[in-house]
Write a structure and sequence with these properties.
This protein has about 425 residues and is α/β, with parallel strands linked by helices. A hairpin with a 2-residue loop joins strand 2 and strand 3.
Length: about 425
């Protein structure tokens, strides 16, 4: 049976479909922004297509998914000062630039886990309408934190179960896709320690129940064992950062299908930059002190079979937007194969976000979020960070970034 005409035909490709351990030579067809066909080269492609591109055996792979970013932070030594000093209009314009840089780096979907004043929701809207370039954005709105807790400068300060419920409802009313809770202290807030528990299990349970009743997923900033245990017992969907994970915590995460988003690039960036970059002493000291616990927790989680999704925490100090591949390289250094790191940024990330049937893979029925790469990232992740080797970024079948140009019947170099 013949295959009908396609809107876009990407032929003669080496395909990484997100799941298979090895590349295969073939082609894909796209119709109305969705992958309609994926075939090996032994199956002839359709004779006609509105646009046809010969990839010349370059790699075709799913767009990357970053499950933890802060578009409202600028990766300066003082990103909290940045986000709190700008007017909403100024912040929105800067965030739009951050989103465009992220898309150009091959990230076609992201989850923004905390912004001031719901500016992230406004940016999500204009990107959805096609008025500005950017990844597909899921928003948390304002982070839910205790009074004076980590992130209070641009989060929503609440205390007690009733206030937490009301805070979650405020985010839902604004249109949040996901709700984020601050279970522990963190690195960038002066006067608190990452190991401190903050929101209690009971407070988070009230908020998580409220979010789940509305059909929203939840995430918890947790940088200590007890904070992680509190969040998992409360019903959280993902642990952001993680540290000091013990067998009981890992067993609970597995039992409750809780993901880990390790965000190694955040601490690595601050340690590499040091105080010479303008960072305050306390940030560098806390990053250094908790690095080994983060790596050990990740290794234990991986060995136990906990699902791990890629998240960069981009926007935190020296952790630049558009350099999202840094997290993949950190995962590789931490013992992940390139394939495992890529799957954290594709199939596993899509599952965490609730999009396992339509994102993170090259398969019929999935959205055509695609990267064309000159080199094999399943062998060398660094090719994704070289501008001249990330040749094209497609989002829902539309060319968003890259150096491919269109001719009447085809695309080409």
């Amino acid at each position: 049976m013949g295959i009908k005409r396609m809107d876009l035909l990407l032929d003669n490709a080496l395909i990484f479909d997100g799941r298979s351990p090895s590349l295969f030579s073939g082609w894909i067809g796209v119709e109305q922004g969705t992958i309609a066909a994926v075939e090996h080269r032994t199956t002839p492609p359709p004779a006609q297509a509105a646009r046809r591109l010969d990839l010349q055996q370059r790699v075709l792979m799913p767009g990357l998914i970053d499950t933890h970013v802060h578009l409202g932070l600028d990766a300066s030594p003082n990103p909290v000062g940045f986000i709190t000093s700008l007017t909403p209009a100024e912040l929105a314009l800067r965030m739009a630039a951050h989103a465009a840089a992220t898309l150009a780096a091959g990230v076609t979907t992201l989850r923004d886990l905390g912004c001031r004043g719901h500016v992230d929701l406004a940016l999500r809207q204009v990107v959805q309408e096609g008025l500005l370039p950017g990844p597909r954005i899921l928003c948390a709105g304002e982070m839910i934190c205790m009074t004076g807790g980590h992130g209070w400068q641009f989060g929503l300060e609440v205390d007690g179960q009733d206030q937490v419920r009301r805070g979650v409802r405020r985010q839902l009313k604004a249109g949040a896709d996901v709700i984020k809770f601050m279970a522990t202290g963190g690195v960038c807030t002066k006067g608190v320690e990452p190991g401190q528990t903050q929101l209690t299990r009971e407070e988070m349970a009230a908020g998580i129940e409220t979010a789940h009743l509305a059909g929203r997923k939840t995430a918890a900033h947790a940088q200590s064992l007890q904070g992680t245990k509190n969040a998992v017992a409360a019903g959280i969907d993902s642990i952001e950062h993680g540290a000091d994970l013990d067998p009981a915590a890992l067993e609970a995460m597995l039992k409750n299908d809780v993901f880990l988003v390790p965000t190694l690039a955040a601490g690595a960036s601050m340690i590499a930059g040091g105080t010479a970059s303008g960072l305050e002493d306390f940030m560098v000291a806390k990053s250094q002190a908790h690095r080994s616990a983060r790596l050990e927790g990740l290794a234990k989680a991986k060995a136990a079979g906990v699902k791990i999704a890629m998240g960069t925490d981009a926007g935190t100090p020296l952790n630049r937007h558009g350099h999202n591949v840094h997290e993949l390289l950190e995962l590789n250094q931490a013992g992940f194969t390139p394939l495992e790191a890529l799957q954290a940024a594709t199939v596993h990330a899509a599952e965490l976000l609730g999009f396992k049937d339509c994102l993170g893979r090259i398969a019929p029925g999935c959205l055509a979020d695609l990267l064309i790469v000159d080199g094999d990232p399943t062998l060398d992740l660094q090719v994704l960070g070289v501008q001249d080797r990330l040749l094209a970024v497609y989002q829902s079948g539309q060319l968003r970034s890259g150096r491919w140009f269109q001719t009447p019947g085809s695309d080409g170099l």
